[in-house]
Amino acid sequence: MTVQFGVFTIGDVTTDPTTGRAPSEHERIKSMVAIALKAEEVGLDVFATGEHHNPPFVPSSPTTMLGYIAAQTKKLLLSTSTTLITTNDPVKISEDFAMLQHLADGRVDIMLGRGNTGPVYPWFGQDIRQGIPLAVENYALLHKLWHEDVVDWSGQFRTPLQGFTSTPRPLDGVAPFVWHGSIRSPEIAEQAAFYGDGFFANNIFWPKEHYMRLIGLYRQRFEHYGHGSADQAIVGLGGQVFMRPKSQDAVDEFRPYFDNAPVYGHGPSLEEFTAQTPLTVGSPQEIIDRYASMRDSFGNYQRQLFLMDHAGLPLKVVLEQLDILGSEVVPALRREFATDRPAQVPDGPTHAARVAARDAALSSDAANPVVQDNPAETALDGAK
Amino acid sequence: MSETHTAPAEGTVRRIAVVSAGLSQPSSTRMLADRLAQATVRRLEDQGIRVQVETIEFRDHARDITNNMLAGFPSPALGGVLETVIGADGLIAVSPIFAASYSGLFKSFFDIVDPESLEGMPVLIGATGGTPRHSLALDYALRPLFTYLRADVIPTGVYAASADWGSAGDANASNNSLASLPERIERASILFARAVAASDRSSRVQDPFALDPSFNPTGGFTAT
Questions:
Q1: Do B217 and A195 touch (CB under 8 A)?
Q2: B214 within domain boundaries
Q3: What range does the domain containing B131 cover?
Q4: Alpha helices in chain A (DSSP H)
Q5: What is the structure's pLDDT at A261?
Q6: Number of structural domains, chain B?
Q7: Which chain B residues touch A379 with a CB distance below 8 Å?
Q8: Are B70 and B32 in contact (CB under 8 A)?
Q9: Is A136 within 8 Å of B67 when comparing Cβ atoms?
Q10: Most distant CA pair in chain B, distance
Q11: Which bin fits A280, alpha (ψ -120 to 50), beta or left (φ > 0)?
């Protein structure tokens, strides 16, 4: 999987503006599962769910949902968009996702985000003004819990730990791959670069120039911390499309959903928003052309996720969209992205590849015992 | 600051952004904004400072301002306006007084400006209204807004009532012993021009992606 393609969902319960009908929570939850199963059926690589703790959103318990999907899929990678690193206990994230990783035989990674719903912080006993320090400290603990068997730890935000082992240990001793998601914070790009983790730019709500700066910063710092060259940094992008064989049909059908969408509805016109953000509404070929050009802006990247099921679009339409995505758009984009991709650019991260890389590193360590060439690891040791 | 503290270097350039939230065309709010700008430019040029003035009518960007509030990012045109305002050496901000305060459009613009981006900006505030009775809105509405943004609001603001445009003295005075609108504009421009002359904001690079030097990617925790 050179570039991994998939869908990410917010899990909103939104009234269909064309019919005035809103699904029940139960219907919406089952729709999310149907979308995940369809993603595998049409040959997509990834399904990622958001995490929310307030209506009109249903996905409060991502590993429960992903575990259920894991049992019904064979190849699909299961991820999040995002897991709240600020208000979840990092110990529970460590346990839940390691458990999911075992059950799914390694088909799991995780995207961490801060969350922007103000009241969620106090509901979970936190302070939104501490968002960045929480994201930094909680991830430092999560990283430690996954990489060290016995952890002694104390920090600013959580009860200290003495002699704690997070169980189960990560599958094959390799933790789930971590993406750090951010819309606007250079601190999070820096954090992702420091650890050599992935950086995911939501990309759908802002102009691409903004994300080009953020991703550029991440790539440059990834190299600075000695994880590889800037073009070897692990980048993921969000996207948003609606397509029909005839371009004008797509525009006509999508417009009422756009005009009433919870995030940007009643603001910019569909035409303005498509010109200013990666939202693309049109024929499959128009989608292919627009997204094939993403790497001209962001460099070769590893993961492309599309937001497909929002703004009240009915499940039937979403599944039709996934059919077009899987049969026409993604195969063409796979061909595009494989063309002229430099050999040193990594593929999208998988558990099997990461286990193989770890084993290769261990055998080369055995051959050359004194190897300490990773400045980030050194810096981590220094922070102890 | 004394009048004689520095002689500006040869070829010194200062950029002034002028924003007007007037709604009608032509607008007396724009007229006041232009008068304030002209008086300031004259003073700076007398000191050998070249001045670039960019004037923005919020009316021309009313839809984009609303869209930015809803979508969270500016259109390219509004992005240019924001850069002009944020990167200026001084800002002249003039609003009509509606319902006892600045207009909604005026406030909406400053709601989408990054709250830290006007820190230290010399600001000359002005307002217009139908009668002189709303003149204190300058000091209870506009001034606290810019104080919140940590701008450097100069002490003298200028309020122009409709009658000021046809009066030699203060429109509310029974005689002409109080300062006329042109005199008040001149008085405000002295203080503002001095602050703009000393401002180096436009030559500073503003990087929204700059990290705080104290940021540590592993935090301040004590791992043992």
A1: yes
A2: no
A3: 14-203
A4: 25-41, 62-70, 90-103, 120-123, 131-147, 186-195, 208-224, 247-259, 270-276, 284-292, 294-298, 315-324, 330-338, 351-367, 375-383
A5: 92
A6: 1
A7: 218
A8: no
A9: no
A10: 79
A11: beta
Chain A interface residues (partner B, CB cutoff 8 A): 133, 136-137, 140-141, 144, 152-156, 186-187, 190-191, 193-195, 205-207, 210, 213-214, 217, 263-268, 272-273, 276, 379-380, 383-384
Nearest to B221 among A155, A191, A272 (CB): A155
Place of tokens 């979970």: A124
CA B84 to chain A, closest CA, distance in angstroms equals 18
In a domain, B70, yes or no: yes
Q: Which tokens belong to A359? A: 């084993």
Closest-CA distance, A207 to chain B, in angstroms, reads 8
Contact yes or no for A186 and B67 at CB 8 A: no
pTM of the model as a whole: 0.90
CB B145 within 8 A of CB B115: no
User: How many CB atoms lie under 10 A from the CB of residue A48?
Assistant: 29
Instruction: Please answer yes or no on whether B66 and A155 come within 8 Å at the CB atom.
Output: no
Distance CA A127, CA A39 (A): 37
What domains are there in chain A, each with its CATH number? 4-383 (3.20.20.30)
The DSSP result for B19-67, as a single string, is EE---SSS-HHHHHHHHHHHHHHHHHHHTT-EEEEEEEEGGGGHHHHHH
pLDDT tens for the 384 residues of chain A, in order: 699 999 999 999 999 999 999 999 999 999 999 999 999 999 999 999 999 999 999 999 999 999 999 999 999 999 999 999 999 999 999 999 999 999 999 999 999 999 888 999 999 999 999 999 999 999 999 999 999 999 999 999 999 999 999 999 999 999 999 999 988 899 999 999 999 999 999 888 788 888 999 999 999 999 999 999 999 999 999 999 999 999 999 999 999 999 999 888 899 999 999 999 999 999 999 999 999 999 999 999 999 999 999 999 999 999 999 999 999 999 999 999 999 999 999 999 999 999 999 999 999 877 776 544 554 544 444 343
Strands B101-102 and B152-153: unpaired
Task: Tell me which residues of chain B have a C-beta less than 8 Å from any C-beta of chain A.
Answer: 66-67, 69-73, 75-76, 209-212, 215-224
Whether B218 is in a domain gets the answer no
B22 and B29 Cβ atoms separated by less than 8 Å? yes
Here the CATH number for the domain that contains residue B99 is: 3.40.50.360
What is the ipTM for the molecules in this complex? 0.84
Q: What percent of chain B has pLDDT over 70?
A: 89
- Name beta bridge partners: B223: A153
Instruction: State how far the alpha carbon of B87 is from the alpha carbons of B16, B79, B191, in Å.
Output: 9, 12, 20
Does residue B172 sit within a domain? yes
Which residue type sits at B130? G
Q: What is the pLDDT of residue B121?
A: 97
